[in-house]
Specification:
The complex is a heterotrimer of chains A (327), B (249) and C (306). By secondary structure, chain A is mainly alpha-helical. Chain A has helices at 4-24, 28-53, 62-81, 98-120, 125-145, 171-194, 196-206, 208-213, 218-244, 254-267, 274-292, 296-310, 314-320; strands at residues 85-87, 90-92, 155-156, 246-247. Classes of the chains: A mainly alpha (327), B alpha/beta (249), C mainly alpha (306).
Chain lengths: 327, 249, 306
């Protein structure tokens, strides 16, 4: 059995080496695939904070992914059409600047997570799952019916947004940005796990009555975790939109929420690198199986079923021989 | 009565047609161990849940000192100094022993919101946690995963977590449950010394322990306190023998 | 806004509501009895619709199509229960979500494999086609009226089944205490298979019935499934009565909201903006309804406390 930190190091190294090699042999599509994996991993790292550490089975995290995506889409849309964005009493211009877009994406998804969390964390267990799913659907239909920003057709952004000092139009610098943000999110999750907050959140998942009897409020712990989680997934949404230069209501779809959970499970739930490994595996499967058969989702379903029934710890569980936390 | 650290006044709780707790008033005074005994289904768990704040009473009130805490939730009562242990261990099983007591220390400090400091590096939390572990003789098991502890050691850890809170009153739900003779003896000796620090409301089935420890005993049958007094009073009470032991007096 | 239109829309809402009830009844029963959250319930709805469309296409008989839909969904349900679901009763909710999500992937892509990506069509039978005149001069499609009737009949049948039959007693006992009824000699795993197949059959029936007014296509089950979740969250998980009330509430809210909210906004906004805002809000109306119910009662209208 292999120690988890070696696997993590290999995964990180792989994320540096493979795209660099692709750059050398001029295979930009591989870099795009790697970027896709990294961005999905970032979204899943966000979810993993709520799901793996907090035990909150959110089947509506696409809300934050979509909000991040539309934050990018709307700001860039106004920048490319030179039409000011009206916010009721005042107007602002759009922007093509990634740092500003990221900030907006983070703030908007954090606020949404706060509102959704306040409502849905009143419940637990299966109610929580269904309610988060329902909120996801609510945003999905809202995006479809909101024709000002493309409705069902979505919004196309012609040029990738800018980052000071980098040529983001080339795949490699953009990949680098995404990877850097993923690393930051992983550091965030890691530090949270070591912090007093992480200790309490972890305990609230395993023994909520215990947390109450020492004078802490599990619901507040979960709410903070949910907000941080939503913010990270929202940031990933903004990057995903920039990767595709396109946003549409499918970013809000419940399938996406389901897939984010799937990423975490195939990698290893509650483990720092579980979502990263899961996302890489998912993109590789999608690409390879997708080339072999049009029906690759059947095989994804079968693999997923086998993992749930026979390999609870996901890939990291298999490799390290340890099951990992229970959710 | 006025010096009671913890008391209930005329508590009532019904579940459907069943009166689980029927007009119960008990109190806990400084320095004492007050045992609540009674047959299965007498309402002991319901009583403790209401005292701890996990269950809202239908009528009556719960007091900590001269403060009415009836409307406060479990965590607020804990912050006011109520240290509760569970009948079935409620511990974070995937975490280490130390992490479980650190959680208690964290609750006592009231500072769970530091997101980026390492909890293990906080000397104050750690000192409080280790002190509690030493008192229940678990210092050797600091880094053991809780799920790997024996049942008896888990009971001790339960008590250790309550200790980290420096409570003004302990409420213990069957701390001897499942302990062997040896374990019960160790726990009895430990609780005996603890009462000077904070009084203990003790719910217990182990009668040897109860008679060895209690300053006062209240007998709960069908949701009502049918007798309350010293160990000798209870031993002598014909009513208790009749109701509790099913004997003809 | 005329009264006629209002009545017509209320009937549409009821029709949508009773179809949601067919979905929700199975979901809530399965959750109540076995503690299982089944995302693949929408796939069984799809199976019913595809089975009906295929049989109707081949034989031209709507009745035969309905019977096949019921049988196909029940069989698929029983099969899935025996092969997969049975292993999940003691699993965490997360595992249940994932395994049933996997089943959706397998069912959806499997159906695409067999039937291709194009939607199928199921025609309304001649005997039920065309409008019917109601008192007050309202003309309303007979088929939709029949759907309302079938829904109410199924609701009554379910009530009878759970309240009056031996199976119903076992089901209710199973909700309360698994070990107890096992001790009384009831074959639990057979009971679970039957309940699951029953829920599946209801979903399949709904799929086939709705298939005649919408197109039969891959992924048709999931939007309905999620609305059914909203229904049982509103009604209280495990309660068939709750599912019925919740389904009608959701059906009416969704239908009437879509028509009347844009009209409402036209009273004080420009037409374009009103249509935009109204329809956007209408698309969220059922979820807002759900939030309000939850703020009021976190376990739903007829849910158990705690």
């Amino acid at each position: 059995m292999i120690a988890e930190r070696y696997i993590n190091a290999v995964v990180l190294l792989g994320l540096l080496v493979v795209p660099s090699y692709a750059l050398m042999v001029d295979e930009p599509f591989t870099i795009t695939l790697a970027t896709r994996a990294v961005v999905l991993a970032l979204a899943a790292v966000g979810l993993n904070i709520a799901l793996g550490t907090g035990g909150l089975v959110s089947l509506g995290h696409a809300v934050f992914f979509g909000l991040g995506g539309y934050a990018m889409g709307i700001l860039a849309f106004h920048a490319q059409t030179y039409a000011p964005l009206s916010l009721g009493i005042f107007e602002i211009g759009g922007t093509k600047s990634m740092p500003i877009i990221w900030l907006v994406a983070i703030v908007v998804s954090a606020l949404a997570a706060l509102a959704i969390g306040l409502l849905s964390l009143r419940t637990s267990g299966v109610y929580f799952i269904m309610i988060t799913l329902a909120f996801g659907q609510m945003f999905y239909y809202f995006a479809i019916s909101w024709s000002a920003y493309g409705g069902e057709d979505g919004l196309s952004i012609y040029l990738r947004n800018d980052f000071p000092g980098l040529n983001t139009l080339q795949p490699m610098p953009f990949f680098g940005l995404c990877l850097a943000l993923l690393c930051l999110a992983l550091i965030l999750h890691w530090r949270l796990l070591l912090s007093p907050f992480g200790l309490a959140l972890n305990a609230a998942r395993q023994a909520p009555q215990r947390v109450e009897t020492v004078g802490l409020n599990p619901m507040r712990l979960r709410l903070v975790a949910f907000v941080i989680s939503g913010a990270v997934t929202g940031l990933a949404g903004a990057l995903f939109a920039d990767l595709n230069r396109f946003v549409s209501p499918t970013m809000f779809s419940w399938q996406l929420s389901g897939e984010l959970i799937v990423l975490i499970i195939i990698g290893g739930v509650g483990r720092l690198f579980g979502p990263v490994l899961g996302a890489i595996l998912f993109v590789v499967l999608e690409h390879w199986l997708g080339a072999v058969t049009d029906f690759w989702h059947v095989w994804l379903g079968v693999i997923l079923l086998l993992i749930v029934l026979f390999a609870r710890g996901g890939l990291l569980g298999l490799l390290t021989g340890k099951e990992g936390p229970h959710v | 009565m006025s010096d009671a650290v913890l008391s209930t006044k005329n508590l009532v709780k019904t579940f459907g047609a069943l009166k689980a707790i029927d007009d119960v008033s008990v109190d806990l005074r400084p320095g004492e161990i007050h045992a609540i005994i009674g047959p299965n289904g007498a309402g002991k768990s319901t009583l403790i849940a209401q005292i701890a704040g996990a269950l809202r009473p239908d009528a009556g009130s719960v007091w900590m000192g001269d403060r009415d805490v009836t409307r406060l939730d479990t965590s607020a009562r804990a912050r006011l100094g109520l240290g509760r242990t569970f009948q079935i261990s409620a511990l974070a099983m995937e975490d280490t022993v130390l992490e479980n007591v650190l959680l208690g220390a964290l609750g006592h400090s009231g500072k769970p919101w530091r997101l980026f400091r390492k909890v293990h590096a906080d000397a104050e939390l750690r000192a409080r946690a280790m002190a509690a572990l030493e008192r229940v003789q678990l210092a050797d098991a600091t880094h053991t995963r809780t799920s790997a502890l024996s049942h008896g050691l888990r009971r001790q850890l339960e008590v250790a977590v309550a200790l980290t809170l420096n409570p003004r009153a302990f409420v213990m739900d069957e701390p001897m449950a499942g302990l062997g003779a040896e374990g019960s003896k160790v726990m009895t000796g430990f609780l005996d010394g603890l009462r000077q620090e904070a009084p203990i409301l003790l719910i217990e089935h182990d009668m040897d322990a109860v008679f060895a420890l209690a300053d006062r005993i209240s007998v709960l049958v069908y949701g009502q306190v049918i007798a309350s007094g010293t160990v000798d009073d209870i031993r002598r009470s014909a009513e208790v023998r009749r109701a509790y032991l099913g004997e003809d007096a | 806004m005329s009264t006629l239109l209002l009545i017509e829309q209320i009937l549409n809402g009821l029709q949508f509501g009773v179809m949601l009830f067919l979905m929700s009844a199975g979901l809530t029963l399965i959750f109540g009895v076995m503690g299982l959250i089944n995302l693949a319930h929408g796939s069984l709805y799809m199976v019913g619709a595809f089975a009906a469309a295929a049989v109707a296409g081949a034989t031209g008989s709507f009745l035969l199509a309905l019977i096949t839909a019921l049988a196909a969904a029940a069989t698929a349900g029983a099969l899935v229960e025996i092969v997969v679901i049975r292993r999940l009763y003691r699993a965490t909710h997360l595992d249940q979500v994932l395994a049933t999500f996997a089943l959706i992937l397998i069912f959806s892509e499997g159906t695409r494999w067999v039937f291709g990506s194009f939607p199928l069509f199921l025609d309304i039978p001649d005997a039920l086609s065309g409008p019917v005149s109601l008192p007050g001069g309202i003309k309303y499609p007979l088929y939709r009226l029949a759907l309302i009737g079938i829904g109410i009949l199924v609701a009554l049948g379910l009530w009878w089944l759970t309240a009056r039959t031996r199976l119903g007693i076992q089901i209710r006992a199973g909700e309360n205490d698994r070990e107890m009824i096992a001790a009384l000699g009831v074959d639990i795993s057979r009971l679970y298979t039957i309940v699951f197949a029953l829920g599946a059959a209801l979903a399949g029936l709904a799929g086939a019935l709705v298939g005649a007014i919408q197109s039969v296509q891959i992924g048709m089950g999931e939007p309905v499934l999620i609305l059914a979740f909203v229904v049982i969250v509103i009604g209280g998980i495990g309660s068939i009565k709750g599912a019925f009330v919740g389904a009608l509430l959701v059906g009416l809210t969704d239908t009437l909201g879509g028509i009347f909210l844009p009209e409402l906004f036209k009273l004080f906004m420009e037409t374009d903006a009103a249509t935009q805002t109204g329809s956007a809000l209408a698309s969220m109306a059922v979820y807002i309804l759900m939030s309000l119910v939850l703020i009021w009662r976190p376990t739903g209208l007829f849910g158990a406390r705690a």
